[in-house]
């Protein structure tokens, strides 16, 4: 009988609330039309509430009331919007749900089995007519798919706090009729009639905000407040009001209307709909039970991972900081908010509000959202709480507490520990260089027993490591007769006990997927500050490390121990977990005669591996230790089956070696490859395609069984290119040519070479090739082939001051017209000092280092009219030019980039000539690109100012506080010019890499070239900064980055957080902390920059050459020497030789360590000795007579130490390294000239 009554009530609800239940409405309109009108009314309500328009809300409310009037049987005039009416709205519940026995809900934290609920639902299921009333566009199947129910990945700590029981299925909820919508809004006191008495009288903008209306305070004495505003307000939360007037567990009409309204909002997640539908329809036995289920449902919706992910949040913790604020990297972090502990459970990047984190209070599982600065504040409070807790434990303990360092590092691990090889810092090595080592396995530790003495009271925070071929244990009286130096006289392996920390134990950076790169190891060694005689030991250490790592990878079995098991085992064995996780090498392998094996390797200081050309890496195979072990075991040790034994030993095939050239007696005849036979010049065949193409590419282009290869088009293009090269070289041999003619012919040939390279690279990818052909490898070999032709052309057609081995230095005196304020770091004397340093390196003195002091006006026109509009927005260029041209002729040090409020111009000062100076700098860069790609030089340096890498597409890019010292971005302009199609006036290069070695991140260059991913560009930057310094805060506030170039570094580092992360594959930002050191920049270059550049395979490398990371620079955040800058330049030139025939354009950016250049007139009241202590630097003829050098005494004293070493010395080393890197081949193997010229 009870079920029958319930079904009758459901039928009544269907007839009242859903037009679908009948064929037509009371007014005769169709059901579909009435339903559409209902939805439109709902949408209009939401729109009006967002605009907060009283007039619109009044009109809409009147329309709703008219619709209600047409359906009400009673007189609409009796429908009063007062408190009594509100009570009647809630009390009149006609949609009571089926009553049933009590059962537990799966929604809250106290969830049990759902079987009882499902049985009760079957018994109380409504007739078909009632179910039709709930039919709408959503289907039950759509809400119960495995995808909809699967819990996404989220933080384990969060999952341990909540119970996410499955939600049973329930019929979809019906849409609200216009009458029900007015009833709901009246219950919630939403509408213009409530504007004067309640604070919130409109709907909220999102579905979740509207769901939280269940907590809205409802004014109980509205009528009294309307008549007398001084009356005390009586309010009650909406859900409590509903409970107060409910007659039974099914009498929750107002909340049901709210849930149905939320259910049909367009952005409500499907899982939230499922929870709402079940919550309002599940059988209950009492009012408190229904109320608790509703509250649990609203709470569950707020933190359910399915709901969050469907609503755009991410619940997966990132491996590294995501964006400027840290993003999803902060998921799982703890915070204190409003005095209570919370955990971060999700993250979303909102276009309007910025970055938001959803947090969960641990005590009551309530959620709340925090912005970046709020989250940072909360996390700091949590850290302070933990520190106080630890301090209290220390104080209350009656005995000495174990080291806090142990508490922090007991779970420390390092990537690749399962392969046994790490980098470690020895206490005995005073230099502190990380060195290859392996960690002893726990079984080895127990076997050694008392031989291992602990340096600490607890060995759980220590590991025992074996350093491989250490250099610091050498002895002048060493007994090793094969030692090449003192550094090689010590034992090959040395045991040491180390404290576990990120400072002493690091990941081993090299992969065994490739051969051991001796070239890369040389580059890394150059940053360690060790004597050159120690390099053989360094190389042996990595030979051993790579061999052991390869063996471990080959024989490593899956470790069944989880992290917790490893920790537990470590506790039992009184060791650190690293000793459990490390690879256990067999005794037979560890006792191999490694000394003997390494002695058989060639001495790297006396010999050099042969490569096909100078673009190839010098590599050697990795020692195959598993093959060695196999060879000394039967039957192979008996030589019984040598063929099979050889077969089991993995070896790397040797490369086919082809010399680049063999000069004749006169040194003028083009060289012939030995495998081509003797060909005369008259035959006009100097080279054939097999001289340049690798065996792999030749095989791919070869005909198969008389059928043309799919790459015939590539072979024909290559043959045509080689024929052109032969023709140009032959012509230059036969005829006397003037230098300009030869340059033009060479330039034309090189342009053809680069165009052919790019065009047919695209053709390979666009054509259909057999599956056996690897397109990526074919394109890689094609690029190398074209670059060999490019190099051959430069070498054969070069002149003593043009082509191979030539480094050009470009400058223009108009750059001196940029005059900054007195006391600015970016002083005009920087340019004369740069030229002085370049000349010390040989610029203008050596024929291979021409000095160009005047840039043609055509390049200034090209820069201003064509290229700069590609780099900067027209509004920015117009603003800067207008600002500068309006200055008086004698103006100096005027802010140029301040906004309308006068902010942002404190760094970027200038004068009337600043725009011309900046355009001249860009023009010099464009000319440098033309000279390099045209073959006039291999690389070039532009000594120009003002700098430009902080200048972006518009003013203050990437939310920086200023433009720094920059006006126009020469590096970005040069890259755009090089990559622009020839039809648009560019050079048509496919890929350009910008490597920024300035102390600061080049936010302007990244903004111009890589604001979105552009496959033509790779931007690489090593700079000070990082999330641990600049913080994870959101950058939405305009003044959040309130720091300039000279502010305290503890406030954050200019230009801000834009360089802390890499937004896409076209950007590699490497923040190096508070200070740039030789070790950090060297490690970054070798382990990150080199692989990224090699993968990108650029056709031109542009260096944003800043020298403000020098140890004596006044910015005070650098630790590099002048020699370090030379080494960095050398490494970049090596990258360029490998990918783009050495093409490097260097453009001066920062670097301010120039001592006072004019006699310093200090305060006459200062002591005489103080005034005499400040000496000046002599720049000679490079310093114009008209150039003054005003500065304050504080800056002058700071720069005084730059006399010993500073900006000038850095420039000298930089240009010297460029000159060394411009030599594509040994001059003994390649004549400097190709034939007579005039």
From TrEMBL:
Residues 1-37, 67-81 have a biased composition (Polar residues). Residues 365-392, 722-749 form a coiled coil. One of its GO terms (molecular function) is histone deacetylase activity, hydrolytic mechanism. InterPro entries: His_deacetylse_dom, His_deacetylse_dom_sf, Ureohydrolase_dom_sf. Residues 118-128 have a biased composition (Basic and acidic residues). This is histone deacetylase. It is found in: Nucleus. It holds the Pfam family Hist_deacetyl. GO terms for biological process: epigenetic regulation of gene expression. It is an enzyme of class 3 (hydrolase). Residues 828-1156 form the Histone deacetylase domain. The lineage of its organism: Eukaryota, Sar, Stramenopiles, Ochrophyta, Bacillariophyta. The keyword Transcription applies. It comes from Chaetoceros tenuissimus. The keyword Transcription applies. Belongs to the histone deacetylase family. HD type 2 subfamily. It comes from the Eukaryota. Residues 38-59, 96-116 have a biased composition (Low complexity). Residues 1-81, 96-133, 890-910 are annotated as: Disordered.
């Amino acid at each position: 009988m009870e079920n029958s009554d319930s079904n009758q009530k459901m039928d009544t609800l269907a007839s009242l609330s859903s037009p679908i239940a009948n064929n037509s409405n009371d007014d005769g309109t169709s059901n579909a039309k009435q339903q559409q009108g209902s939805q439109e009314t709902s949408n209009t309500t939401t729109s009006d509430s967002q605009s907060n328009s009283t007039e619109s809300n009044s009109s809409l409310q009147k329309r709703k009331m008219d619709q209600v009037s047409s359906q009400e049987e009673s007189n609409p005039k009796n429908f009063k919007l007062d408190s009594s009416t509100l009570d009647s709205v809630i009390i009149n519940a006609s949609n009571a749900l089926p009553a049933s026995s009590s059962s537990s809900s799966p929604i809250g934290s106290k969830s049990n089995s759902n079987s009882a609920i499902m049985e009760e639902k079957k018994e109380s299921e409504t007739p078909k007519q009632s179910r039709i009333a709930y039919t709408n566009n959503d289907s039950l199947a759509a809400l119960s798919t495995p995808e909809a129910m699967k819990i996404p990945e989220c933080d384990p700590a969060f999952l341990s706090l909540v119970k996410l029981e499955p939600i049973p299925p329930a019929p979809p909820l019906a849409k609200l009729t216009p009458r029900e919508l007015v009833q709901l809004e009246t219950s919630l006191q939403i509408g213009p009639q409530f504007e004067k008495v309640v604070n919130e009288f409109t709907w909220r903008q999102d579905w979740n905000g509207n769901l939280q209306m269940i907590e809205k305070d409802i004014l109980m004495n509205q009528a009294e407040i309307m008549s007398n505003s001084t009356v005390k307000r009586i309010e009650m939360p909406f859900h409590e009001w509903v409970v107060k007037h409910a007659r039974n567990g099914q009498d929750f009409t107002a909340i049901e209307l709210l849930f149905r309204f939320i259910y049909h909002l367009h952005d409500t997640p499907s899982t939230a709909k499922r929870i709402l539908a079940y919550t309002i329809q599940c059988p209950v036995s009492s009012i408190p039970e229904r109320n608790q289920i509703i509250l649990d449902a609203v709470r569950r919706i707020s933190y359910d991972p399915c709901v969050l992910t469907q609503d755009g949040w991410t619940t997966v913790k990132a491996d590294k900081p995501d964006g400027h604020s840290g993003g999803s990297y902060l998921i799982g972090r703890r915070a204190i908010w409003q005095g209570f502990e919370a955990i971060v459970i999700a993250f979303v990047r909102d276009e309007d509000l910025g970055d938001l984190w959803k947090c969960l209070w641990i005590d009551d599982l309530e959620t709340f959202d925090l912005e970046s600065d709020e989250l940072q504040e909360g996390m700091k409070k949590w850290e302070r709480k933990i520190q106080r807790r630890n301090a209290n434990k220390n104080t209350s303990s009656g005995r000495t507490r174990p080291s806090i360092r142990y508490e922090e590092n007991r779970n420390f691990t390092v990537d690749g520990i399962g392969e046994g090889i790490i980098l470690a810092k020895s206490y005995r090595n005073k230099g502190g260089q990380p060195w290859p080592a392996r960690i002893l396995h726990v079984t080895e530790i127990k076997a050694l027993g008392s031989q291992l003495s602990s340096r600490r009271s607890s060995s759980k925070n220590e590991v025992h490591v074996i350093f491989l071929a250490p250099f610091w244990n050498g002895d002048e009286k060493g007994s090793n007769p094969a030692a090449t130096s003192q550094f090689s006289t010590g034992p090959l392996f040395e045991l040491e006990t180390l404290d576990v920390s990120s400072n002493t134990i690091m990941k081993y950076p090299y992969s065994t997927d490739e051969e051991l790169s001796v070239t890369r190891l040389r580059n890394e060694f150059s940053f360690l500050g060790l004597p050159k005689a120690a390099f053989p030991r360094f190389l042996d250490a990595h030979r051993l490390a790579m061999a052991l790592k390869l063996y471990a990878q080959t024989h490593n079995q899956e470790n069944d121990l989880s992290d917790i098991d490893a920790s537990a085992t470590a506790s039992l064995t009184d060791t650190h977990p690293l000793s459990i996780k490390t690879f256990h090498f067999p005794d037979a392998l560890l006792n191999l005669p490694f000394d003997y094996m390494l002695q058989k390797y060639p001495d790297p200081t006396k010999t050099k591996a042969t490569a096909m050309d100078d673009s190839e890496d010098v590599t050697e195979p990795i020692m195959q230790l598993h093959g060695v072990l196999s060879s000394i075991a039967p039957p192979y040790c008996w030589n019984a089956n040598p063929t099979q034994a050889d077969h089991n030993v993995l070896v790397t095939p040797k490369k086919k070696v082809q010399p680049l050239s063999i000069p004749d007696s006169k040194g003028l005849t083009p060289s012939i490859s030995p495998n081509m036979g003797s060909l005369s010049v008259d035959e006009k065949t100097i080279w054939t395609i097999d001289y340049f193409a690798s065996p792999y590419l030749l095989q791919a282009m070869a005909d198969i069984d008389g059928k043309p290869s799919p790459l015939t088009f590539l072979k024909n293009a290559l043959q045509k290119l080689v024929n052109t090269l032969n023709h140009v070289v032959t012509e230059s041999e036969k005829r006397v040519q003037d230098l300009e003619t030869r340059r033009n012919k060479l330039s034309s040939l090189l342009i053809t070479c680069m165009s052919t390279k790019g065009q047919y690279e695209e053709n390979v990818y666009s054509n259909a090739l057999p599956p056996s052909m690897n397109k990526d490898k074919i394109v890689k070999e094609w690029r190398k082939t074209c670059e060999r032709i490019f190099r051959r052309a430069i070498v054969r057609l070069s002149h003593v001051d043009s082509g191979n081995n030539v480094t050009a230095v470009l400058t223009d005196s108009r750059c001196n017209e940029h005059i900054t304020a007195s006391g600015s770091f970016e002083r005009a004397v920087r340019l004369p000092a740069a030229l002085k340093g370049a000349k010390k390196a040989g610029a203008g003195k050596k024929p291979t280092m021409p000095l160009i002091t005047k840039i043609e006006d055509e390049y200034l026109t090209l820069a201003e009219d064509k290229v700069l509009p590609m780099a900067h927005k027209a509004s920015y260029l117009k603003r800067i030019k207008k600002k500068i041209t309006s200055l008086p002729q004698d103006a100096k040090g005027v802010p140029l980039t301040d906004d309308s409020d006068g902010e942002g111009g404190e760094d970027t000062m200038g004068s009337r000539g600043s725009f011309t100076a900046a355009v001249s700098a860009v023009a010099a860069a464009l000319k440098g690109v033309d000279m390099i790609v045209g073959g006039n030089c291999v690389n070039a340096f532009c000594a120009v100012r003002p700098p430009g890498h902080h200048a972006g597409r518009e003013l203050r890019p990437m939310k920086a506080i200023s433009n720094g010292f920059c006006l126009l971005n020469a590096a970005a302009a040069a890259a755009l010019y090089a990559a622009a199609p020839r039809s648009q006036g560019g050079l048509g290069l496919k890929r350009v890499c910008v490597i920024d070695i300035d102390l600061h991140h080049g936010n302007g260059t990244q903004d111009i070239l890589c604001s979105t991913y552009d496959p033509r560009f790779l931007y690489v930057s090593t700079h000070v900064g990082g999330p641990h310094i600049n913080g994870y805060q959101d950058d939405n506030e305009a003044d959040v980055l309130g720091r300039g170039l000279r502010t305290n570094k503890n406030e954050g580092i200019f230009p801000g957080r834009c360089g802390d992360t890499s937004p896409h594959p076209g950007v590699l930002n490497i923040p190096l902390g508070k200070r740039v050191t030789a070790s950090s920049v060297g490690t970054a270059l070798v382990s990150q920059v080199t692989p990224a550049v090699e993968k990108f395979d650029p056709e031109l490398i542009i260096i944003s050459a800043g020298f403000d990371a020098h140890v004596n620079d006044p910015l005070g955040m650098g630790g590099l020497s002048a020699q370090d800058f030379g080494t960095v330049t050398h490494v970049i030139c090596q990258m360029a030789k490998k990918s783009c025939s050495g093409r490097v354009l260097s453009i001066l950016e920062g670097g301010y360590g120039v001592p006072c250049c004019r006699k310093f007139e200090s305060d006459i009241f200062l002591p005489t000795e103080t005034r005499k202590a400040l000496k000046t630097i002599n720049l000679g003829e490079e310093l114009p007579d008209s150039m003054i050098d005003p500065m304050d005494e504080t800056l002058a004293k700071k720069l005084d130490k730059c006399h010993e070493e500073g900006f000038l010395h850095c420039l000298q080393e930089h240009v010297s390294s460029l000159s060394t890197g411009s030599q594509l081949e040994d001059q003994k193997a390649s004549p400097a000239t190709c034939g007579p010229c005039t």
